[in-house]
Specification:
Layout: H1 9-32, H2 44-69, H3 75-103, H4 110-146, E1 158-159, H5 168-174, E2 175-176, H6 190-203, H7 206-228, H8 246-256, H9 277-290
Length: 291
């Protein structure tokens, strides 16, 4: 928001910080337990950040709705109403994510097992920090707004002061508009207005609903066809950059040597008297049999 009081930049930063704390806690616990850290685990923080920021937006939206419904209520009832609205959604999404990754630990691939353990544990911590740390930050941010304090410096700012005497930059950064005053009621967010007044009526139109069904049918048919075209295995060419020497190597290997199959090697693990002619003949006979 443009108001220096209602601006919630620090609230958003704390939501991202909550995801970072979840990554540190989850990874720290797994390292303490001796779970091996593989390269693929380095991708997990991006998943945690995505889910953590999503939970943050759900919490903020529920908090704003609680403020509009119970503007004169105390902080405890506001936070209780927020958790009643948001906790169920956050819990279900986190539970499904945790189950999905912990089921992945049954795989026979050690790297995938480590990735699922690290990510699933981090999701658990992400849920804990969202329900505790971020809820506390919501309350602190609310108290800052109630005290008409600046979003950056937390210093009290003037509200309702004559803005004609000051420059535009000063009015934008140092003059607040207290949205909790009866003369200035808190309005809905523009995105909420868009989905309520425009998008909702549009998608509930009978012709749009028919179009949605047709599009979903086409999507479902294309998905089923795509599933029939999936091949098992992985093409190592897809793991290298387009200008890598690996790509022509695998092209030539498939073109000239694919008919011979994989290279087979035989190792003799015991001490052998190679100077003994009968032993050498036995080895040659064994090699011929293998060929």
């Amino acid at each position: 928001r443009l108001s220096c009081i209602r601006n919630n930049i620090w609230l958003a930063c704390c939501g991202v910080l909550s995801s970072g704390l979840a990554v540190l806690s989850g990874f720290g616990l797994m390292l303490f337990c001796g779970v091996p850290f593989v390269v693929t685990v380095a991708n997990a923080p991006f998943l945690i950040l995505g889910v953590g920021v999503d939970d943050m937006f759900i919490m903020i939206a529920s908090w704003e709705q609680s403020l509009r419904k119970k503007e004169k209520s105390n902080v405890k009832s506001l936070l209780a109403e927020t958790y009643a609205e948001a906790a169920l959604s956050v819990t279900i999404t986190t539970l499904t994510d945790v189950l999905a990754f912990f089921i992945g630990t049954w795989t026979a691939f050690p790297s995938v097992r480590s990735f699922c353990l690290y990510t699933g544990t981090a999701f658990v911590f992400c849920y804990v920090y969202t329900m505790t740390f971020f809820g506390a930050v919501l309350v602190l941010n609310h108290k800052r707004e109630q005290g008409n304090r600046h979003w950056l410096t937390c210093m009290r700012v003037d509200v309702g002061k004559d803005e004609a005497e000051n420059s535009c930059l000063y009015n934008a950064c140092c003059i607040g508009s207290c949205s909790r005053q009866p003369s200035q009621p808190e309005g809905e967010h523009p995105m909420s207005i868009f989905f309520k007044k425009y998008y909702g009526p549009f998608v509930t139109n009978k012709w749009v609903k028919l179009l949605m069904v047709l599009l979903y049918g086409a999507y479902l048919g294309g998905s089923i066809y795509g599933c029939t075209q999936i091949r098992e295995g992985i093409d190592l060419r897809n793991l290298a950059s387009d200008d890598s020497y690996v790509i022509p190597y695998y092209d030539d290997d498939e073109k000239y040597f694919s008919t011979y199959g994989p290279r087979v090697m035989v190792v003799i693990t015991e001490s052998v008297e190679y100077w003994n002619e009968s032993v050498r003949l036995g080895i040659e006979s064994c090699a011929q049999s293998l060929e």
